[in-house]
């Protein structure tokens, strides 16, 4: 990969796509299934992404879900934040709602990124934004298919919305980008690698991205825990934030 001749956005997309293909090959081998498949996929994709980024962007910082974190990245302006398999459970169950996240945070902001949806043979990226499809009359909120956040359920009731269960954070966020939903409201806790690439891609497509109190998403922090996230159509942002603010603490 001639990474040095690629822009950062091109590199992010190429890496996300290549990691997705590796993961599909691992799964298609049929030699591993279930939780073991998820573990093998995580390890294999992580090794590829980490080695590629260290080779192509050696001066940048790096934060990965599957690698031991160090304080070195905290002094860097540019930090790659990756999730080799977002939705390990869905990947292991041979579903399509899992993703590969490759993002570049600059000065703590989710500036550049790509989210691959290998099960759908798609890569959504910050440098190739598409027009948002028309919104549905009745807002659709993507939520966890196993444990929907109480806040999302409450907001859906207030705005007359419909809940749509889905797997990984990346798949949910990209459902809003792709016009399959209007709102992704998450309050159950995530880490930086869960949302950095989806946030970057969503912003590039003109969506609203913030914490559920309306404050901006900030990355490359010492504590990588991010409690909540709102990605939604801009026309819904004010209403959703207002409804969240009314919820009991």
Automatic annotation (TrEMBL):
Any matching Pfam family: Inositol_P
Cofactor(s) needed: Mg(2+)
Entries under InterPro entries matching the protein: CysQ/Inositol_MonoPase, Inositol_monophosphatase-like
Any one biological process term the GO annotation gives: 3'-phosphoadenosine 5'-phosphosulfate metabolic process
Top-level taxon in the UniProt lineage: Bacteria
Annotated coiled-coil segments of the chain: none
CDD domains attached to this UniProt entry: CysQ (cd01638)
Keywords associated with the record: Magnesium, Metal-binding
Binding positions for Mg(2+) per the UniProt entry: 65, 83, 86, 194
Keyword Oxidoreductase: no
GO MF annotation: an example: metal ion binding
Record's signal peptide: none
Name of the molecule in the record: 3'(2'),5'-bisphosphate nucleotidase CysQ
